[in-house]
Amino acid sequence: MLGLVGLGLAGCGTRARSQAVAGQAVTGQAPAAGDGLGVLARSRGISFGTAVQGELLGRDPVYAAAVTAEAQLLVPEWEAKWDALQPREGEFDFGPLGIVASFAQAQRKQLRGHALVWHQAMPDWLAPALAEGPARARAVMAAHVEGVLGATQPVIRDWDVVNEVLANPPGSRFTEQTPARGIFRDTPWLRALGPDYIELALRLARERDRTLRLTLNDYGLEGDTPWAEQKRQAMLSLVRALLAARCPLDAVGLQAHLQVDEPFRPEPLAGFIQALRGMGLSVLITELDVREGANLPPGLEARDAVVAAYVQQVVGTALAAGCRTVLTWGLSDRDSWLLRDPDVVRRDGQQHRGHPLDAEFRRKAMWQALARSFAGG
Ligand code: G3I
């Protein structure tokens, strides 16, 4: 197995956990005109970053230049998921992740991992293996955690260890309906191990790497709706149970795949973040982007203004409540999953404009909204 260390990447990003992952040390340096979002954020002790694709970093200089200019923290969009890392049982492939890690090292960017245990991006062999029973499922999870953390330890100090474990409450028009068992999403992991798979993944990660920041990541937690509130309460009860069991957990990631049609009020999100921080956890925004609504105002400028205002409300609320890490799920409208995934693409032939840069990598109103949020505006 050629791990990342084998690629000569040892050393990149290996800062102490406290510095690299709990937000940037405040530089005190006043940002210069034209500085990217990462520099603006860092001047306020905030880490800003984005999801990247190694293939684009390698073949698209405009894409790579935008990532270099705007982001301090990178997360592989798919290269650190199970289907990319262990496509066949026991055969690890760190090639695609190595491309992202090499770029991060060359550009002195930090790198976070996403996602060790998830019900999507599963290679064909995995679900049948989990269905063989709990002992096999435990062994499969342990081997993946061992193999991945062993190879990535020098370059990744922060992982979404478990992703999207909660079911979406029924009735929401803002989140997909999901099969559920109580508060939990019904997945091959839940069926194999029950809810304990969450604690098992976290304990395996901590045992393998004692200084790693362990994050529980989920979506649909930001809006002012009965469903988002129900999911927030489910997350709080899960976190309380994990901490009561002395399960290692350092952070909760709010994916923040926002939708401008979803009502928002600062208080519910602020209270949720403060409750998590009151339990000693960090809170990150991990996958920020925005789906536009059904009734678009005429003209790109007006559309962008609606998106920007919504982003500033949500991100401003999260930062005021103590969030210190904000990542978008891509920088430019051009490469977004919002243009690819049939469940979220616009039905009217228009394309979502939910990222800081437009398809030509020009800064948009959302970029300004993030800059203002970082400046405390
Ligand atoms: O192009 C590569 C190919 O070279 C490679 O061999 C192959 C390996 O699987 O992957 C191909 O890329 C595709 C990738 O998107 C880049 O477009 C993958 O096939 C495809 O599965 C992958 O989909 C990603 C999806 O998660 C599933 O992993 C999306 O990019 C990514 O945006 C999406 O991100 C998720 C978060 O992880 C969790 N939260 C929701 C978010 C949006 O669905």
From the structure above, extract its key features.
377 residues; 14% strand; 12 strands; 14 helices; TIM Barrel; binds ligand G3I; alpha/beta; 10-stranded parallel beta sheet
H/I helix tally: 14
CATH superfamily: Glycosidases
Give the strand tally: 12
What is the percent of helical residues?
Answer: 25-40%
How many domains, in number, for the residues? 1
Distance between the termini: 48 Å
CATH third-tier fold name:
TIM Barrel
Return the CATH class.
Alpha Beta
Order of helices and strands: HHEHHEHHEEHHEEEHHEHEEHEHEH
Please mark out the parts with pLDDT under 50 across 5 or more consecutive residues, or reply none: 6-22
Share of β-strand residues: 5-15%
Q: Would you tell me the structural class of the helices and strands?
A: alpha/beta
What is the name of the CATH architecture? Alpha-Beta Barrel
| Nearest-integer average pLDDT | 93
Task: Indicate the radius of gyration in whole angstroms.
Answer: 20 Å
Instruction: Give a short account of the largest sheet.
Output: 10 strands, parallel
Instruction: Report the principal-axis shape.
Output: globular
Catalogue the ligands: ligand G3I
